[in-house]
Amino acid sequence: MAESFVHHYIESEGPNYDEEQLFFTIRDLMAGGMETQSTTLGWAIVLICNHPEIQERLHAEIDDVVGRHRLPTLDDRPK
Engineering a disulfide at 13: which of 17, 23, 42, 65 sits with its beta carbon 3.0 to 4.6 angstroms away? Predict the structure, then answer.
């Protein structure tokens, strides 16, 4: 069995763990992760907008890897 947060939670709380508390804990972890990602992306966009020279470098790099005639795909990720 793969180790997971739920596995460790149940192991530490014992067989009579509170299922509702587990649900709320997982919900809080997911919400916290989403908030962190959205904040990070928001600040990245603000910083890129305020630094046109970096914006140009990013655009050139994307053009080098993907080109201008198609959308990026997961196959481009290693590049």
Answer: 17
